[in-house]
DNA sequence: CATAAAATCCCTCAAAAGCGGGATGCAGCA
DNA sequence: TGCTGCATCCCGCTTTTGAGGGATTTTATG
């Protein structure tokens, strides 16, 4: 019995690349692809693949959210996240939302096959590069987790507001904003606001 | 005589996708691919394609720079930029550096063929989506152009250095750094440093 | 209900950024 | 030769931040 495979990715070249790579493989049945989260969900209503390769960047909603929806509706489907290298900060979120693995888009056919095989056995698969970056960046230890308020303050800082302006916007005192700011600097290990924004952008927090 | 094609992209799936799409086409000869700027330049020493598809994000250096080098060394090679949709701010730079066209990674084979055909005739080709985004975002009017010094200062600001630290690093006075900082704020229409870094990141300047 | 985490607020003081000027030297160019 | 853009440097003054604290109230959660 062949393993059925479905792909969600809005980049046609990537879809075509995987199809081409998988065509040569025994035991893999390509049952289709979608370029949006909506059309993916529509397809799944009629048929579910064993393994679902899912890009993190989709035009209508993020793969993170789609992953959660899919796993809620069809827990038996194994989801493998797919993205380019600079989006590794999403890996943890993806796994938190039920994904079984993570592939970088420079993976070759053997790595894809290995990923499919691993997740079909109920284990987790990470691209070697992904895994190493996770280790390097300390993501495995959980990337700095910001509270709701801290995220709000961070967002407004990045928009160029000062503490007092942020205070007005959030109906709190400037001192409080300052405290949040200090905590942000500490959590993200930033020397000052400029570095804070840079690091936050690098971690896709903005 | 078939048109020779070479690809630089660090995502194997994309390379494979294009190869698969092009294999079915008449008159296209795939002469190879590279995953880094360095290996691309090495290949070009021995052989030059008619058309060079080039990803903008490469591991060792940006496609923007590579494009300029390639066009300097081999002006007869037509370069077509390749990237995903959120990197459109690079399109103008790519074209400035001598690229003849721009394809988004969700292009299908007909669009790729059309692009190759168009640039081989010496004309410019933009993906419809790319063209529309260029119009929308006013990129065609040219995004703010920074001087060499301003770029250096911007980089160091984003790393969290203060004016005096930057001054030490660049062997200039803190006052000068301050002037560059003022000019950066003005050019990028930023209210303060935080917004400056955010905007710079949005424009892929960092 | 106890406890921890989050959110709130306050203080001081030094350092840095931001604002609004002005000014000089130098290179490329019409 | 005069113009323009770039890079360099300086002044005074205000605002904002960053680095130390300390403290209280809310809100989850076992």
Structure explained in plain terms:
The structure is a homodimer of 206-residue chains. With 206 residues, chain A is an alpha/beta fold. Chain A has two domains: 134 residues, Rossmann fold, CATH 3.40.50; 55 residues, Winged helix-like DNA-binding domain superfamily/Winged helix DNA-binding domain (Arc Repressor Mutant, subunit A). Chain A is 50% helix and 15% strand. The first copy, chain A, is built from ten helices and six strands, in the order βαβαβαβαβαβααααα. In chain A, strands 2-1-3-4-5-6 form a six-stranded parallel sheet, with helices on both faces. In chain A, β3, α3 and β4 form a beta-alpha-beta unit. In chain A, α8 packs across α9. Chain A is elongated and about 65 Å long. About 6% of the residues of chain A have low confidence. Chains A and B meet through α1 and α10 of A and α1 and α10 of B. The first copy, chain A, binds a DNA duplex (30 and 30 nucleotides) through α7 and α9.
Beta-strand residue fraction of chain A:
5-15%
Q: Examine the coordinates and then state which fold CATH places here, giving the name of the CATH topology of the largest domain in chain A.
A: Rossmann fold
Can you say what the CATH homologous superfamily of the largest domain in chain A is? Response regulator
The most extensive contact between chains is: A-B, 39 and 40 residues
Q: Please state how the strands of the largest beta sheet of chain A are arranged side by side.
A: 2-1-3-4-5-6
CATH architecture descriptor of the largest domain in chain A: 3-Layer(aba) Sandwich
Helix content of chain A: 40-55%
Shape, per Cα inertia axes of chain A: elongated
Whole-number total of structural domains of chain A: 2
Could you tell me the mean pLDDT of chain A? 82
- Please state the CA-atom Rg of chain A, rounded to the nearest Å: 20 Å
Point out poorly predicted stretches of chain A: 130-142
Number of helices of chain A: 10
Give a count of the beta strands of chain A, DSSP E runs of length 2 or more.
6
Major sheet description of chain A: 6 strands, parallel
Multimerization state: homodimer
- H/E element sequence of chain A: EHEHEHEHEHEHHHHH
Distance between the first and last residues' Cα of chain A: 44 Å
Structural class of chain A: alpha/beta
What is the CATH level 1 assignment of the largest domain in chain A?
Alpha Beta
